[in-house]
């Protein structure tokens, strides 16, 4: 029985050590490699740059069939949005993302190229706690509950834009244009 417990402990210890090694390597690459000029987003060490390109997201995508107006109060009035998005690496595989997400909701009238800002939100994903809060481990999608200050959301055409500001100074962008008919919104359910 003790041998079985020791084996489990060794596996857990090995996983923990491996996790610490990966974290230390990433920290070393971010801190030691440095940038050629502040804010340039280019890493002086080519190996570190290749590694960062491999692990950091190359694009973000709002999941159009899952993102929707919701009712946080549960009364059917759209008082916010549930935004579901995915981060993809250079090989087009789902990946984790760290950085600052900025969301902007604009109301658009027919024929308008630039809408009127309805709301904006900034959410930092810069810790294990934030990753656990916003990223679903099963689907590997991020879910952001965004509450509106001006309630309820009126019927109309909207543009939702997202920017992800990465630690290496790059910015990723996606947008989603949708119509909301003003009818009842489903209640938001914490996942």
CATH superfamily of the largest domain: Macroglobulin (MG2) domain
Q: Remind me, CATH topology of the largest domain?
A: Immunoglobulin-like
Mean pLDDT, to the nearest integer, reads: 82
Largest sheet: 4 strands, antiparallel
Q: Give unreliable regions as ranges.
A: 1-40
Tell me, what's the shape? globular
Order of helices and strands: HHEEEEEHEEE
Structural class of the secondary structure composition? alpha+beta
**Termini Cα gap:** 38 Å
CATH class of the largest domain: Mainly Beta
Radius of gyration (Å): 20 Å
Our count of domains comes out at 2
CATH architecture of the largest domain: Sandwich
Question: Secondary-structure map with pairings?
Answer:
Layout: H1 2-33, H2 46-55, E1 59-62, E2 68-70, E3 80-88, E4 99-108, E5 116-125, H3 128-134, E6 142-147, E7 156-165, E8 171-180
Give structural attributes.
4-stranded antiparallel β-sheet, alpha+beta, 3 helices, Immunoglobulin-like, 191 residues, 32% strand, globular, disordered N terminus
